[in-house]
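Support request from a user on the community tier.

User writes: "When I paste my structure tokens into the form, the page sometimes reloads and wipes my input. The last time it worked, I copied everything first. Here is what I submitted, just in case something in the input itself triggers the reload:"
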């Protein structure tokens, strides 16, 4: 498989992998194992969404039929998994940004706050 700019990094995949729905082949449902690696499916979906490509125009070097990729996308979207994943990623990003802001505030000296009752001077 060729490398694409939209490919998922190892760090991002470690986080995303835990958020994806359980494959139907895993207990308790049973079933046949998935034919395509989920990371490749996610990379193909990201390639389509990042580039605005049509499903049928999915690059052949992904090695996965476009109908299969669309099937995963449609199934995850219908189950609400994509919205849930985006919500979780947003929540994690907000927490990370809050932590950075707190650390930055600790490192930077705070400016004195204006005293109450006094009017602020405008430039």
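"...and here is what came back when it finally went through:"
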């Amino acid at each position: 498989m060729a490398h694409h700019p939209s490919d998922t990094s190892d760090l991002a995949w470690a986080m995303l992998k835990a958020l994806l729905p359980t494959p139907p082949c895993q207990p308790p449902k049973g079933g046949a194992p998935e034919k395509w690696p989920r990371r490749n499916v996610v990379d193909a979906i990201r390639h389509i969404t990042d580039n605005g490509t049509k499903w049928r125009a999915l690059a052949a070097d992904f090695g996965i039929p476009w109908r299969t990729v669309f099937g995963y996308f449609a199934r995850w979207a219908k189950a609400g998994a994509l919205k849930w994943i985006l919500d979780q990623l947003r929540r994690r990003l907000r927490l990370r940004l809050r932590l950075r802001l707190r650390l930055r505030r600790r490192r930077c000296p705070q400016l004195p706050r204006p005293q109450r009752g006094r009017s602020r001077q405008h430039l």
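Agent notes: The reload is a front-end session timeout and is unrelated to the input. The chain is about 50% helix and 0% strand. Residues 10-107 form one domain. Escalated to web team.
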